[in-house]
Design brief:
Helix content of chain B: over 70%
Largest interface: A-B, 33 and 40 residues
Number of helices of chain A: 6
Helix content of chain A: over 70%
Number of strands of chain A: 0
Oligomer: heterodimer
Number of helices of chain B: 15
Strand content of chain A: under 5%
Distance between the termini of chain B: 50 Å
Structural class of chain A: mainly alpha
Number of strands of chain B: 0
Shape of chain B: elongated
Distance between the termini of chain A: 66 Å
Order of helices and strands of chain A: HHHHHH
Largest sheet of chain A: none
Order of helices and strands of chain B: HHHHHHHHHHHHHHH
Largest sheet of chain B: none
Radius of gyration of chain B: 26 Å
Structural class of chain B: mainly alpha
Shape of chain A: elongated
Chain lengths: ~160, ~300
């Protein structure tokens, strides 16, 4: 038997202890749906921290955050400099289409990060063990929207026609 | 321990095993009269309190028992259960590791530790401990149950069913087998079978609120009013995304292609919104109604 099996795992250290209840799949889904890609990464990041998966998931969360930050940059760039990608000229001028595309990216990022944590979520469902996600969800949506706006403003300056 | 006391201890233990806590408490009074400080009597008193849902009293009693007999294995295991139930995971781990230090080969203790690891979502460690417990005792029910649950968590329903089959062959009447079957069937989204087994289990444990929730959910999933929500039931959140994408993108494409008149398009949009509203409002209302009416 591997001796590491009998070494302690649950130690009251800094941050959340293992067994801390995560936010439910529903909470993360609604946050991503209503708040967009950046909010999706934020709520998954909170769950990774609660479940002590932070170190394991950090590269994935950072990659997802980069993709999420790219969404407002691409939207602003296409709107202000449509000549950059002539094939998407029509899409960029259609506000509904850009908002829908952003949401699709948010759903894809939510799904990708969910897949990484799906086993833990299933275990939590089995235990009926979730923390209420209202406050965290609203905070992530607010923070996601603020970051989105800030990035869009910077992108507007960079891609000024 | 006198012969009478030993006999009383055995009777109380058996009464607790079959859930007759009131009778167990009556006999416990007699036992405590003979020696109120005997570790076994204090441990049984803790069990009675635990069975009756008085966690604080159970904890006090079990600590008294352990103060007099620190190596009382069943008292330490009860303390472990109480700590896990109260989310005192670090204390529970230190307790079980202490027990394992004295008996690292003990398959049951390894399985108990695996149960804690599952509870704190350390799934890899839980799997390694279960494998080790099964290697030492392939028939151990707790290790087999945990094996089935870990297979469910990893989405491996076939392996979970195979493990359930082995458990059933061992002891088809055992209550833990029925609970495992319930978990496997829930994972396989077979609400009718969940309802069937759940009803039998409810007869054995009529006050189990978790079981009532499971049954209400199973009845809800198999109710005719849920038929229109099949995509959500079958594919979960993936279904929600697909319905949203199909609806929103489909409506826009219809509008652009101008294959239907505007009033017809408006009607389709209203139907879509009503469908989405039903998927949000319908299940909670139906759940409440089923809970009130019975299932």
């Amino acid at each position: 038997m591997d001796p590491a099996l009998l070494s302690p795992t649950v130690t009251p250290a800094a941050g959340a202890a293992p067994g801390a209840r995560p936010y439910s799949v529903r909470a993360t889904f609604l946050t991503a749906f209503l708040g967009g890609a950046i909010a999706a990464v934020f709520i998954h990041g909170l769950n990774a921290r609660l479940l002590r998966r932070w170190e394991r998931d950090l590269p994935w969360l950072l990659a997802a955050l980069l993709l999420a930050l790219a969404v407002p940059v691409v939207v602003v760039a296409l709107a202000q400099r449509p000549e950059l990608v002539p094939a998407l000229r029509g899409l960029a001028s259609d506000r509904q289409m850009t908002s829908m595309s952003s949401r699709v990216v948010a759903m894809l990022l939510w799904g990708g990060l969910y897949l990484r944590m799906r086993h833990t979520h299933r275990a939590a469902e089995m235990h009926g063990d979730h923390r209420p996600g209202w406050k965290a969800g609203i905070a992530c949506i607010a923070a996601g929207t603020a970051v989105n706006l800030a990035v869009a403003m910077v992108a507007a300056l960079v891609f000024k026609p | 321990v006198t012969e009478d006391a030993a006999d009383l201890e055995l009777q109380i233990s058996r009464l607790l095993d079959i859930g007759r806590t009131a009778d167990a408490r009556r006999l416990l009074g007699q036992l405590l009269k003979t020696d109120p400080r005997a570790p076994e009597a204090l441990f049984l008193a803790a069990r009675v309190e635990h069975e009756e849902g008085r966690a604080a009293e159970a904890l006090a009693r079990v600590r008294e028992a352990l103060a007099r007999a620190p190596h009382h294995r069943r008292a330490r295991l009860l303390l472990f259960d109480l700590d896990v139930e109260a989310d005192r995971f670090a204390e529970a781990e230190s307790n079980i590791l202490g027990l394992l230090k004295g008996a690292p080969e003990d398959a049951f203790l390894l399985a108990v530790y695996a149960r804690l690891m599952l509870r704190v979502y350390q799934l890899e460690k839980a799997r390694a401990l279960v494998n080790e417990a099964l290697r030492r005792d392939p028939e151990l029910p707790l290790a087999q149950i945990l094996d089935a649950l870990l297979h469910i968590i990893h989405g491996d329903d076939a392996q979970a069913s195979a493990r359930l089959g082995r458990l059933m062959a061992q002891d088809p009447e055992a209550i833990h087998v029925a609970w495992t079957a319930l978990a496997v069937l829930q994972a396989q989204r077979r609400p009718r079978e969940v309802l069937e087994i759940g009803r039998q289990l409810l007869r054995a444990t009529p006050n189990n609120t978790d079981l009532i929730d499971v049954l209400v959910d199973a009845r809800l999933q198999s109710h005719w009013a849920m038929k229109p929500l099949w995509p959500f039931q079958r594919f979960g959140w993936g279904g929600s995304i697909a319905v949203w994408a199909l609806g929103v993108i489909g409506l826009r494409l219809l509008a652009r292609a101008k294959v239907v008149s505007e009033p017809v398009l408006g009607g389709i949009a209203v139907l879509y919104v009503l469908y989405i509203a039903y998927s949000w409002i319908g299940p909670p209302l139906l759940r409440r109604w089923l809970r009130r009416r019975g299932f």
